[in-house]
Amino acid sequence: xxxxxxxxxxxxxxxxxxxxxxxxxxxxxxxxxxxxxxxxxxxxxxxxxxxxxxxxxxxxxxxxxxxxxxxxxxxxxxxxxxxxxxxxxxxxxxxxxxxxxxxxxxxxxxxxxxxxxxxxxxxxxxxxxxxxxxxxxxxxxxxxxxxxxxxxxxxxxxxxxxxxxxxxxxxxxxxxxxxxxxxxxxxxxxxxxxxxxxxxxxxxxxxxxxxxxxxxxxxxxxxxxxxxxxxxxxxxxxxxxxxxxxxxxxxxxxxxxxxxxxxxxxxxxxxxxxxxxxxxxxxxxxxxxxx
Length: 291
Ligand SMILES: [Zn+2]
What we know:
Bound molecules: zinc ion
Low-confidence stretches: none
Number of strands: 12
């Protein structure tokens, strides 16, 4: 089966064809986000139309998605006018093949389960660390969506009561302290040149920089400890480019394990294995498995 796979993000749209779990012909195009949801969907149609002969369409997208209807329930200011777009209906009508639409972190979790770091796992969590923190819950090999298709907003766990204000309207959310943007915020107080996660890790030999990284890694552990106690997962997949830093991959289990009750300590923390392809592969797999 050939699946047309698309990954719609705030800055770029990735498109490729997935055949037997292999991603081919990957292309990346800037998202016309400022021109509104209709422009985004029209570009998606153009990208799909440029590939011939596919049997399904799998879409991984930013925003909260109803996977039954393929409607975007909510998208933030990165994609203005995208909320309410009937992505699945549009693509099925235009191309005459079944389509599956899923939230990007959920799709990435499925990609990692089928082809990556969570292969063979049935009960696991997936978190992605970037500007914010995204989450996905897989229970018994199936995504858990919650009553309103909004489960897994782990970035808004409350880890600091009365702490920093967050874009969600609350205060003290996990992502305000543990996202890569939080690391950069603290590190750039030492030196404005420390303006990305990569730049910060490149200067880890400096004690002041290492101290900022240590404090940030502890913040990551607080959210993970709460989640592991809630879900008792076999495995937690940690996504986002920063999680490929070997120091962090080694350090997080050392920080998390002593904070867990003994019954939970068998959990494995694993860096994501598929990088940017996870969402495309997961969306393609979901589309291919549709009846
Ligand atoms: Zn929040």
